[in-house]
């Protein structure tokens, strides 16, 4: 079953919706206009019920099949938020809001899921229920977590969830997926190493935090090299090292470091946090300093369920002729929270040879729309075949 003809017919409309969203990007939970557009379109499509304000500014729509003897309920999720980036594409539908830009293609995700919702509400050629989920704040705000915390999964009786991301480097309209750990858990830290400053010529009268922090940065690398099982993946990156002084002859009283730790399993994530805190405290103590640790837990690792991933890959191969094995990415993905609550799968749809996501030149490729929409529709029609 290749691309559905209906999506070839709808492609111009879906492209227009996508470009309107691209022109009007909204960041994190501020997706008020976007949520309004989504809710209005779902109403126009005749979906059975619409709820707004889920997870602050998320939208949920319910579409019932012609029959419901299966009792199955499948959730399909798209993200709606943009990034704080000044767009440099020069497109005629470029962002009208300076400093906000759809640089991760969430405009494409929202438009494709709307397209699928229109088709599913028109045809209802399935036995069960579809819940379309439009979430805010994927880019670091935890909008997916907030929708889950609002009780969405139980309220709608969702049994499985599916998600999709456009992906530069995967051929246009092709798919890639992998079972198991797929996206990383993304914790962040800030540590203030407190010493005691003074004249650079009299270090013996100070407790120099720059030397202690330098040792600390190196010691933190042993989490990856000495603590975590070498077959597991982990990234420990100190990304900022700031002293309180810019002078050549002053030993500063404190140093602040920041960074991120990326892991692929809950066990590694926990081990990394424990070792991080122990190394900070003990290394600083060895040099007479004190470590004030601010550990900021981020998204959990995103883990694709085996059975749903095999099914999603089969559907993708049906649409595009094949489905490749995706590589693990150490980036984070808020869909992890939904996959922690329900089995499901997250797939990549190719954006072709484009600029990378999160850059000012990036743009979602509208030619991926028929493939993306067909995948959504087929997930529903094949998982809950018409009675
Ligand atoms: Zn992104
Ligand atoms: Zn994204």
TrEMBL record:
Q: Which GO terms describe its biological process?
A: diaminopimelate biosynthetic process
Assigned keywords, A-Z: Hydrolase, Manganese, Metal-binding
Q: Which Pfam families match?
A: M20_dimer (PF07687), Peptidase_M20 (PF01546)
Q: Which InterPro entries match?
A: Amidohydrolase, Bact_exopeptidase_dim_dom, Peptidase_M20, Peptidase_M20_dimer
Give the Peptidase M20 dimerisation domain ranges: 187-285
Q: A Gene Ontology molecular-function term?
A: N-acetyldiaminopimelate deacetylase activity
Cofactor(s) needed for function? Mn(2+)
Q: Explain how, and how many, cofactor molecules are bound.
A: The Mn(2+) ion enhances activity.
Question: Which top-rank group of organisms is this from?
Answer: Bacteria
Q: Identify the residues that bind Mn(2+).
A: 104, 106, 139, 165, 358
UniProt name for this protein: Amidohydrolase
Q: Could you tell me which species this protein originates from?
A: Pseudooceanicola nanhaiensis
